[in-house]
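tool=predict chain=A
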Amino acid sequence: MAFDAAAATALYASLKSAALELGLFQAVDTHEPLNAPGNRLFCSIVLGPMSPVTSSGLAAVSGRITFAFHLWSSAMQKPYDNIDPEILAATASLMGQLSGEFTLAGTVRNIDLFSMSAQPGWVDFEGKQFRVVTLTVPVVINDMFAEVA
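tool=predict ok
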């Protein structure tokens, strides 16, 4: 079975569901925000790099798709000392949730837990400052592409 539109839709739904189940985010979107997020935590999930993996078989190629979970928090919340601890806790909770959802309800072979990483940064969006953590989440998918002679 090749990776098709239905598989892509199911994968995005599983990733979004895992983030929503935490109940931490004002919203979870599978695209970058079109407008500046509000003052509460917000999560956007976007597509990252994609590549074949060496653990493929002889008749099919398995693949790795990396997703970027952007966790947004307003940098203008007070007290300022709570901004980083709040987004750190949300990042750790999301990483834990994804670890528990290792196969995303059977839609993937596994989440590559040891390749997940989180990078904090700052984003200026529509004149508003945000603390943003980019959590990269690689997922491995069996038999993405058929090998045909």
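Residues 83-100 form the longest helix (18 residues). Residues 5-146 form a domain with the STM4215-like fold (CATH 3.30.2000.30).
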